[in-house]
Amino acid sequence: MVSLFFEGAFAPCPAPFNLAAHVLAAGAATPDKIALAILKPTGAERWSYARLIAAVRGTATGLRQAGLKPGDIVLMRLGNTVDFPIAYLGAIAAGIVPVPTSSQLTVPEVTKIVQHLTPKAILRGDGVPCPETDVPTFGPQDYEAWHGLPPADYDLGDPERLAYIVYTSGTSGTPRAVGHAHRAIWARQMMMEGWYGLQSTDRLLHAGAFNWTFTLGTGLMDPWTMGATALIPAAGTDAAQLGLLLKRNDATIFAAAPGVYRQMLKFPLASMPKLRHGLAAGEKLPDSVREAWRDATGGEIYEAYGMSECSTFISSAPARPNAPGALGAPQRGRHVALVDESGTPVPLGEEGVIAVHRDDPGLMLGYIGAPEATAEKFAGDWFLSGDKGVMDEAGQIRYLGRSDDMMNAGGYRVSPLEVEAALAGLPGITEIAVTDVEVKPGVRVIAAFYTAETALEEEALKAAAEARIARYKQPRAWIHVDTLPRNPNGKLQRQRLKEQF
Questions:
Q1: pTM for this structure?
Q2: Shortest CA distance to 168 belongs to which of 370, 23, 381?
Q3: Structure confidence by residue, pLDDT tens digits, 357-389
């Protein structure tokens, strides 16, 4: 037998279709129910489904009145506020293509995005870095006023049309613009049973910021699709407060990156009788964290594996726990295999590249403006993740690490080539290479190894990096070395850097 998982095709997305209409349909049937609570030390800011839907559809009207048409691209430079998901869904409701981006991106990074996508408009929050440009830019005084406008009709159409674009760090060193169709939200139904165990009665607390795609999907859109309640801690909430927030707000499901669980476990955790289980994604969950959480709370953490190009498609779930040492299994309805370089599924028990079939409804349309880069990610009919694993007879997959040099920084996949390109030419440095290193069990950070006549002042290097790249891409350690390790052909050997560290 070969490492192939396929239990029948998933139900096709209906047509005509609109992603935002699908997300908000359940809430429209329960308008007085709380859709969102933003948890603050002094209480909570609550949004009913009626208020949320009105703000989303009003935003769609505002964008249309601003001259934007279906298919136009709007760049989102918004902070960690509720304006982020409202603007995102409002654009999609109008058939406009939003590009959510991290507020941590620097002006040079955003400039490249503007040059690449030539958006028709920019939504910009106060203090969020953005270059001076001729592109029409709308601030809080504009997009918050749109909430009260008359509701726009949903732009219904082909579920294969472009809905939104997200950026991911590519192995080439150039961040890729990942284009997703409206049908992508339809495919997320496979996560409801295959990962979340999510029901309309649930109250899901996600520890991430509004403007992180993990939060946007798992913390907001998926609960709203089910008609459940989303709970989001206010900006600045410390990990030490999360346990109490879970208890006080009767959270039934908790979602966070593994690093958040690790931070929470440093503090005594209050009893959380309503909490059924936790969810983790973004990086590999260490067994030690899983066991410590189980000891502290009596509950389980269900892990998921995915990528910007296909969200999560391998996971454990309450109805299907992972085997010891495994990530979990492909969600029912997925078409997943472990393949060799030619795209041929390898025998069960043998190492292969985790791949998803091109017919998966959650798979991206492609990299925008980069057809050759899109084609390079396929071997036959299989989209290659770049990560390796082993599948057993039950379909459980054990993760073996990345087959490329991609780094994992707090749940974000980051290309070392992108970071090296941004840091090239720092004063005093002759050569630089970056990789992620393990500083203690289960904790990885980005480290920069550089050659120079003498060791340089680390604070000055950090300040220079801060001006060039987003915080989550910045090295946390700077190591002066005599030479960078290379093979006889001159290729940098990052694994030797890890070992040297």
A1: 0.90
A2: 370
A3: 999 999 999 999 999 999 999 999 999 999 989
